[in-house]
């Protein structure tokens, strides 16, 4: 038997065969709201965590894809996410990316918990995004017109996070852009309009918040149409030769990244914009400086948050899930 129901303080989690609590996707979403996840990221950065000290992730090629190993250590915890990337999986009706997270005690390296790594990633990615741009989104002063490129789990999770942070009225105007609208399960997008890529130009011009959560390797839209106070979040591309945002917008915007060195090494949106001569690394803004208030974002200029996806983020959210679960009443 793989799991048995927990009876200890981690109420709601299951126990692995080794007696370590295992948090399913349902456990993670039941214990930790997106707003709680945003707060956990902000608290970590304000308490001294510096993303530039994070451990570098490694990629190992396999016959049918890749393993990504994402280790991190902070405070009294250490952890590693083991993610698999199988490009052929969508044809089999399986997720392209799957993951498992192992949380350890930092002093003894004793395993503390196992977590569904895919659900953990879905929770932490928008948490990082909105920790980085919360101030810019808040100053819009009205329910933003939201345009999402991609209707997958990450795109929808960004909508859920904004709803959790600011209330249902904050997501009253949402539009999805996808390559094939006929393949979108309309029940998952809450009856929001879904338009075909290529027919989105008017929507770009009207958008206050644009989220790119795609597998695209070329820019999702023409940035000449983007308003001067628009906030853009790009989380889909993670290779130095792939991007969702064109160089013109990177040069025009205030660009926030998790870590400057990581972004200039891994994020194609940044790497190619630097190669095109529209921006230099010293113009990139570290999100830690935005969150702790040491660096403000100018009004009247667009903001771009480009996420690389770093190991410290999973560690912080895994800890938040464990702590929130321990505070929940035990199942009767």
TrEMBL record:
Enzyme Commission numbers on file: 4.3.1.12
InterPro entries: NAD(P)-bd_dom_sf, ODC_Mu_crystall, ODC_N
One Pfam family hit: OCD_Mu_crystall
GO MF annotations in UniProt: ornithine cyclodeaminase activity
This protein's UniProt keywords: Lyase
Annotated signal peptide: none
Presence of the UniProt keyword Transmembrane helix in the record: no
GO cellular component: cytoplasm
Organism domain of life: Bacteria
PANTHER family per UniProt: KETIMINE REDUCTASE MU-CRYSTALLIN
Protein name, entry field: Ornithine cyclodeaminase
Naturally occurring in which organism (per UniProt): Actinomadura luteofluorescens
């Amino acid at each position: 038997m793989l799991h048995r129901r927990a009876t200890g303080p981690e109420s709601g989690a299951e126990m692995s065969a080794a007696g370590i609590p295992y948090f399913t996707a349902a456990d993670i979403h039941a214990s930790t709201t997106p707003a709680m996840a945003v707060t956990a990221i902000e608290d970590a950065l304000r308490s001294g965590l510096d993303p530039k000290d994070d451990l570098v992730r490694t990629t190992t090629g396999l016959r049918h894809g890749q393993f990504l190993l994402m280790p991190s250590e902070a405070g009294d915890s250490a952890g590693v996410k083991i993610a698999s990337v199988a490009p052929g999986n969508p044809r089999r009706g399986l997720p392209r990316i799957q993951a498992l997270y192992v949380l350890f005690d930092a002093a003894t390296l004793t395993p503390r918990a196992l977590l569904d790594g895919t659900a953990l990633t879905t929770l932490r990615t928008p948490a990082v995004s909105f920790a980085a741009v919360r101030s810019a989104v808040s100053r819009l002063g009205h329910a933003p017109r939201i345009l999402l490129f991609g209707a997958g789990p990450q795109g929808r999770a960004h909508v859920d996070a904004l709803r959790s942070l600011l209330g249902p009225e904050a997501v009253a105007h949402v539009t999805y852009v996808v390559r094939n609208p006929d393949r979108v399960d309309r029940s998952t997008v809450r009856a929001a309009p879904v338009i075909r890529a290529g027919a989105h130009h008017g929507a770009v011009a009207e958008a206050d918040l644009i989220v790119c959560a795609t597998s695209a390797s070329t820019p999702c839209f023409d940035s000449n149409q983007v308003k001067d106070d628009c906030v853009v979040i790009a989380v889909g591309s993670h290779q130095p030769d792939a991007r969702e945002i064109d160089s013109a917008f990177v040069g025009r915007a205030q660009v926030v990244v998790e870590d400057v060195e990581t972004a200039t090494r891994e994020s194609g949106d940044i790497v190619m914009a630097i190669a095109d001569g529209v921006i230099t690394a010293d113009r990139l803004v570290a999100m830690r400086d935005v969150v702790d208030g040491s660096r403000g974002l100018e009004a009247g200029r667009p903001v771009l948050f480009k996420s690389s996806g770093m190991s410290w983020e999973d560690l912080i959210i895994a800890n938040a899930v464990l702590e929130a679960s321990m505070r929940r009443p035990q199942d009767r």
